[in-house]
Amino acid sequence: MTSSIQIILVPVDSSKGAVQAATYAAGLAEALSVPLRLLFAFPKDPVEAFGIPTEAPRAKELEYYAPEAFARLRDVSAEKVFASAREAIGEISVEIQEEIVSGPAGEAIVEHAEGSPGAMIVMGSRGMGSLREMLLGSVSQRVLHHAPCPVTVVR
């Protein structure tokens, strides 16, 4: 871990917690005069996203299994999420970057942080409830326990 923050990473997904985290991170980025990087985690491939098609899948079930269609779904989804985060953040004086990361959200965020020297992660908490979170885990818990950098969870 480096001793100074050089970039703030903010995983976003249009949830209330992600919007709150983006707003908080924007103020922090301005105070520290560092760039803000919005991260959108998306599955690597259709099987990761939807599972293996059923024995007799309908055409609609297979629609996004075509590589071009899956890439369009990723890009359209990311654009909506990034636009929502930018709207919540408003005008700020630091650079805002956008990046799509591939894979399960927690793993993809940690992997991205590992390759980002001087990173700090600011992320929202969905607040699933302690029992459900304990049984299922959560993205914020995975990131808190595995990230190589400081992590702030906004509630």
What CATH architecture do you see?
3-Layer(aba) Sandwich
Total beta-strand segments: 5
Detail the poorly predicted runs: none
- N-C termini distance: 25 Å
- Given helix and strand content, the structural type is alpha/beta
How many domain modules?
1
Give Rg in angstroms.
17 Å
Within the largest sheet, what's the order of strands?
3-2-1-4-5
Your description of this structure?
The protein is an alpha/beta fold. It has seven helices and five strands. The protein has a five-stranded parallel β-sheet, sandwiched between helices. Helix 1 (16-32) links the parallel strand 1 (7-11) and strand 2. Helix 1 (16-32) packs across helix 4 (67-89).
Which secondary structure elements does this structure contain, and how are they paired or packed?
Elements: E1 7-11, H1 16-32, E2 36-42, H2 46-50, H3 59-62, H4 67-89, E3 96-102, H5 105-114, E4 119-124, H6 130-136, H7 139-146, E5 151-154
Parallel strand pairs: 1-2, 1-4, 2-3, 4-5
Helix pairs in contact: 1-4, 5-7
